[in-house]
Design goal:
Length: 281
């Protein structure tokens, strides 16, 4: 096969009658063999060598450009196949765990549905101090701190600790306080960008005793996290990882599809580089 390929290239280049074309052909043959073996980086390096070392080897450069487009097409097809396999595995995982969660979506007001754990529903925990979680369809997780007491603590941050290890959230930019029948209620929300790694910390310590500080400007309140809440948030974090992976790899697949479309458009028409090579011949 290598001999046939070598003779084919030499015959195509013989009309040029120049030694540089024969030298450039050697790089082209190496590039072809590397391409067929799936070694795309080596193939591209050999094509670049033709352009750099033999700028006057017009026929070799033209064939190298055609091969480069085939390589780019193959690269994007390989990427698409890889991303499809990752997405399929992530969706399979999602289907295996989705029964653990409650899904809610108000079609009139919400663009994305929300997943939560039934035991953490607000209607079941109205007068309890606890941390609940929720995850949207794109995998974005939110921790929500709920405080109920005779007086406000005006908390805006959280600290979670296990022994000497701890994480602390940023200051919440989503807070709500109100009083009902002499009882103070507070709620603070922390997204994955502001939770300081708290959701991951809870998931990693789901079987450990976790202490929580609800921190305010002047006051703080400490409590031990309910084991059921630990497990609920850990399960929601697991869901967020799966849904985020699906979103991330879908974006990578879409990007590869756009690149493939662009490469194939170049294959169907002359690019500026090819026109330059033709003009120099």
């Amino acid at each position: 096969m290598k001999k046939v390929l070598y003779l084919t290239i030499l015959v195509a280049l013989s009309s040029c009658g120049e030694n540089i074309e024969q030298k450039a052909a050697e790089h082209l043959i190496t590039a072809q063999n590397a391409f067929q073996a799936g070694n795309y980086n080596i193939a591209k390096q050999e094509i670049d060598s033709i352009r750099i070392l033999y700028p006057k080897a017009f026929e070799a450069r033209r064939q190298g450009l055609e091969l480069m487009r085939q390589i780019e097409e193959a690269e994007q097809l390989r990427t698409i196949a890889f991303e499809d396999s990752i997405i399929a595995k992530a969706r399979e995982t999602f289907e295996s765990i989705r029964g653990k969660y409650v899904y809610e979506k108000d079609e009139k007001y919400q663009d994305l549905g929300i997943y939560s754990i039934r035991s953490q529903a607000v209607t079941r925990n109205y007068e309890r101090n606890y941390i609940r979680g929720q995850v949207d369809e794109h995998g974005h997780m939110t921790l929500i701190s709920n405080w109920t007491g005779k007086a406000y603590v005006h908390h805006n941050r959280l600290r979670f600790s296990v022994g000497d290890s701890y994480v602390e959230t940023d200051e919440s930019d989503s807070r709500h306080e109100f009083t009902d029948l002499g009882i103070a209620y507070e709620k603070c929300s922390f997204t994955s960008r502001t939770d300081g790694g708290a959701a991951a910390f809870i998931a990693a310590n789901r079987d450990s005793r976790i202490e929580i500080w609800q921190l305010g400007e002047k006051y703080k309140f400490q409590m031990v996290m309910n084991p059921a809440d630990r497990e609920a948030i850990a399960q929601l974090y697991d869901l967020s990882v799966v849904l985020s992976a699906i979103q991330e790899h879908q974006k990578l697949r879409e990007e590869a599809s756009r690149k493939l479309e662009f490469v194939r458009s170049k294959m169907n028409g002359d690019s500026g580089e090819e026109q330059t090579v033709q003009q120099n011949q």
